[in-house]
């Protein structure tokens, strides 16, 4: 049986928010303009792809060394018409094994936080990572790997046209905002990714190690929901 929202919030050590604000009507679709420096043939090819080709291209990608150590690529999961896009860093061991983002411990926390917001993976939510392949030993992504892989995320965002992006953790935030600022300094404001509102929060794996910051992440998600509702 699915736990109640109150139970989920209690488990997270948070007070229930009962008065959910009504969601605003979807904003008009926004097409992200081409990014500066995206002119090479590979990126142009990726930018012309629709979902099926893009999935196929990711599955066969050998653009960086991570293809040698992956079990499989992890494309992303969810509703391809979702208003919410959540972006993480890279697949871990469980994700590499199962081919789906956020299915390990961090994923369970993410699912609980989504449930507390009245959201569910696959229903108006899409989840993707900056990297589509697991860095061995869960090491941090290398800049070259991010550079080779991020055109896939760029195209996913263009195809989704989400109402809101939630960047979870440093790599997602810094990649999407082309910034080297800290999470702490980026939280609590609405940024823009080619016109799409973007909110920054902590990575769920970080929250598993830093329990007191769960309350801050919850505040970020409430802020994200208010942002969506106000659009
Ligand atoms: N951490 C991430 O950033 N993404 C996943 O899919 C799993 C763990």
Can you tell me about this structure?
The chain is globular and about 40 Å long. With 231 residues, it is an alpha/beta fold. It is built from ten helices and six strands; from the N terminus they run αααββααβαβααββαα. Helices cover 40% and strands 11% of the residues. Bound molecules: uracil (URA).
Work out the helicity level.
40-55%
Give me the CATH architecture, please.
Answer: 3-Layer(aba) Sandwich
> Which fold name fills CATH's third level, the topology?
Uracil-DNA Glycosylase, subunit E
Q: How many helices does DSSP assign?
A: 10
User: What would you give as the CATH superfamily?
Assistant: Uracil-DNA glycosylase-like domain
Overall morphology:
globular
Order of strands, main sheet, comes to 1-3-2-4-6-5
Jot down its keywords:
231 residues; alpha/beta; Uracil-DNA Glycosylase, subunit E; 6-stranded mixed beta sheet; 10 helices; 11% strand; globular; binds uracil
